[in-house]
Amino acid sequence: MKNTKELHDYKKSKNALVRFFNANTSNEVGGRDLPLWRQILLQVLTLVIALEVMFPILYIITLSFSSSTARPSSLQLIPKEISLVAYGQVLDRPTANPVSFIELLRNSFFLSFGVGAIALLIAVTAAYSFSRFNFKMRQVLMVMIFIPLLMPAVGLSTPLYLLMNSFRVFQCGGAIAIEPFMTCVGGQLLFNLRDSLLGVGIAMIAGALPFAVWNLKGYLDTIPKELEEAAAIDGASPNQIFFKIVLPLAVPQLAVTFFLGFIGHWQEFAMPWLFLTKPQDYTLSMTLYNMTGQYANAIPWNRFAAMAVIVALPVAITYIALQKYITSGLTAGGVKG
Question: Rounded CA gap, 281 and 306, in Å?
Fold first, then answer.
């Protein structure tokens, strides 16, 4: 009340300067009535943040339009030339490895989309069990699932590496031996789960599940149990309740969980770099790192920048297109009742 009265007194003041800096220029009928000086301060603050965020992006985009591979000698935010040579070279052959851009794109899509979808499928069933059912050691298991979120993802890579590397298929004479179930001395290695996209995918699913379960469990807690009880009274089976009532209500949060996982998996570098050794299994982020050399002058900077823009473009376009739905999914369930 005091602030409202002071603002009212400012508006009635005969001092033109005071009235100017306290004028409401937003033309908004709802929300807080901000004086002009606060609006100017907020605008300046947001512009500074926007410039800080956009500076490296603008610099990389400008560098990608250059036809020279030399290291830039000055900062340029406005391109002096518009050349698509770097983009053509990247799309034709990103690095010296005999792997095409389409193969790299396929590998990245396989990991990001496949891992996100499988992790979401497992997480939603686990989250529903933790949210709706009472069973022994329920709280203990939930804490155990939450613990990996407290550790850096790279810290879990060593046990996952050893686990995936223990599953190998050998050609032993005329028979097939699968470790660790069978042993084979001097046989020919046919398949190593660690050195494959499948093994990397399994390891990434293990890292994605804790956040997905925790995120979905909190949202499912906000769905009224009375809806499920009413459906059960009407004769619906547990599967019908889950698939026809719970899942449709949880679609916004399912979309958010999948999208956040998709971003992380699309840009994942440490796990594939540690596991994979064959160039045909490389991802886009691994190829971007391969474009760097021992010395800065040896790096094709325009191709490096073009590759960085191409890697970031699918996620940026998807986020902009689905921003409204992502925002609604993030805020859904914030108010219960």
Answer: 21
